[in-house]
Amino acid sequence: MFRHLFGPVPSRRLGVSLGVDLVKAKSCNLDCVFCECGKTDALSEKRERFKDPAEIKEELREVLGGMTPDYVTFSGAGEPTLSLDLGEIIRWVKGHYPVKVAVITNGLLFSDPEVRKELAAADLVLTKINSVHRDTFDKICRGKPLDLEAFMENMRNFCANFPGKIHLETFIIEGLNDGTREILDLTAYVKTLRIEKWQLNTLARAGAEDWVTPASRQTMERLLKEIIGTGYPADRVEIIGEVREIEGKIEMNEELLKNMREKREYRKEEIEKIFK
Ligand code: SF4
How far apart, in whole angstroms, are the C-alpha atoms of residue 249 and residue 67? Predict the structure, then answer.
């Protein structure tokens, strides 16, 4: 029985991504209004062991014995860096299988040297910043009061020293962070980060709050144009598109698919793009 793995997920950013959930639903140090996992009832502050690592490895053995996804991705129902087992399991996967590892993180724990060390074993880190303006950041991310300057500095240091690739996501919400001043100030900051790609995203499934609606294509294209207009390299910034269809579709495992659907809603067309 699979309890900790889900998918493989048809991911707009990662292709075929086998999800590993190291935390219990929903454990996060933020409560983002757009979160596809729903609201964070109580913020989690401390790193802890949520699950038995032996069980997670057993499930990984079973799935990776039969398939190689584009990525094994640590994400799920919360913030993976809150798990004390993150580093150990990334290293174990990399030591046993020829597969790339990605971690999706909000970056709050880039301040922790142990977390930075654990993440260093991954091939790709996907992190995010939605605004460099305090009031907008707080409206979107709703966590414990945060020293935004320190957070931005920690992210800059992490990007400068991480040995693998980093993709940065900005989640656009109409009426909150889609203004010209917002995007120009954010661009000035992003230019100081050593990242491979900057990805503009908007709501594709239901978020934590009903009032969050997807930004229009027109808004997303205007923002992209404004970013490129500042001299930001056009080949390093993109709007996240639809899930791509893969060749040689994957055999569906009902249990892994059920786990995936419990985390987020997926449209039938998305599922059909990667499963037989
Ligand atoms: S989007 Fe990520 S960081 Fe924000 S509440 Fe959801 S899991 Fe936490």
Answer: 11
CA distances from 202 to 40, 97, 109, 177, 249 (A): 20, 33, 24, 11, 27
Reduced to 3 states, what is the DSSP secondary structure of residue 20? strand
Which residues make Cβ contacts (< 8 Å) with residue 128, sequence separation at least 6? 106, 107, 168, 169, 170, 171
Q: Are 70 and 15 in contact (CB under 8 A)?
A: yes
Mind listing the pLDDT tens digit for each residue in 183-237?
999 999 999 999 999 999 998 877 888 889 889 999 999 999 999 999 999 999 9
Nearest Cα to Cα of residue 158 among 91, 111, 106: 111
Ligand 1 centroid, distance to 193 Cα (angstroms): 21
Instruction: Identify the CATH number of the domain in which residue 236 sits.
Output: 3.20.20.70
* Residue 271 CA neighbour count, 13 Å, CB half: 16
| Ligand 1 site residues, Cβ closer than 6 angstroms | 28, 30-32, 35, 37, 40, 78-79, 106
pTM: 0.91
Q: How many CA atoms lie within 13 A of 210 on its CB side?
A: 0
Ligand 1 atom nearest to 128, measured from its CA: 3
Helix (H), strand (E) at residue 53: helix 53-64
Q: Which residue type occupies 124?
A: L
- The domain tally of the chain equals 1
Amino acid at 203: L
Which residues are CB-contacts of 122 (< 8 A; sequence separation ≥ 6)? 74, 90, 101, 102, 103, 164
Beta-bridged to residue 168, according to DSSP, are 127, 198
Q: Which domain holds residue 143?
A: 5-274
Q: What is the DSSP annotation of 146-183?
A: --HHHHHHHHHHHHHH-SSEEEEEEE--TTTS-SHHHH
